């Protein structure tokens, strides 16, 4: 087998997925027939994927990306030193249900799954770490743009496919102050939008928020940990109706409640 032949199966399919995803992000469409031929021509014997960027975002050079992709982005949903005891306790509670052990000693998926969280949505795509350095490289996800741990949005999300539910453990940092000593209402709305949108995406594919109604019941102390619980109400075509509640960690106090209508982003 020649070097060219060795990159005609799995590696080629991965490169096709990455490049096709990139073109979709940039608003271009490529016919599958011509795409397969073109991508094969861009994989070099050394295992490097070369993509022409002249027609994408006015970039007129050839970007050379290493293949296979191995760099892993930082996962912000994992515990760090800024997490308080309430945040860690709830994380461990749900994370322990992500994997269970059978009587035979085998491990399998549990009812909950932790969702990784990156500072750019692009990093969820194949080859996204490299693409994020090329496409608007200074852009950052709004809730993940602060370097200092614990200063702003500290959160982790878990989804339960069986119950069609999503929970988010959220610890509000000192940079999110609104009324003295309490969390800004806009920061709370941001987290509700993040959770409802993520849950709807998990259920229905890529969505964008069409409507979000929020009722603030009681203020959230700055630095405290709260639990956001999102549930599916119903689905109608491209529309996914969800509801969300923000409570203290044991659920005894309601801080905020909302209903959302994320709609399919595919036109």
Automatic annotation (TrEMBL):
Q: Residue ranges of the Thioesterase domain?
A: 181-253
Q: Tell me which InterPro entries the record gives.
A: HotDog_dom_sf (IPR029069), THEM4/THEM5_acyl-CoA_thioest (IPR052365), Thioestr_dom (IPR006683)
Looking at the keywords, is NAD present?
no
Q: What is its main location?
A: membrane
Q: Which UniProt keywords apply?
A: Apoptosis, Cell membrane, Cell projection, Cytoplasm, Fatty acid metabolism, Hydrolase, Lipid metabolism, Membrane, Mitochondrion, Mitochondrion inner membrane, Transit peptide
SUPFAM superfamilies in the record: Thioesterase/thiol ester dehydrase-isomerase
A Pfam family annotated for this UniProt entry = 4HBT
Q: Could you tell me the superkingdom of the organism this chain comes from? A: Eukaryota
**Transmembrane feature ranges:** none
> Which reactions fall under this protein's catalytic activity?
dodecanoyl-CoA + H2O = dodecanoate + CoA + H(+); (9Z)-octadecenoyl-CoA + H2O = (9Z)-octadecenoate + CoA + H(+); tetradecanoyl-CoA + H2O = tetradecanoate + CoA + H(+); decanoyl-CoA + H2O = decanoate + CoA + H(+)
Q: Which family does it belong to?
A: Belongs to the THEM4/THEM5 thioesterase family.
What is the name listed in the Swiss-Prot or TrEMBL entry for this protein? Acyl-coenzyme A thioesterase THEM4
Species the sequence originates in: Hucho hucho
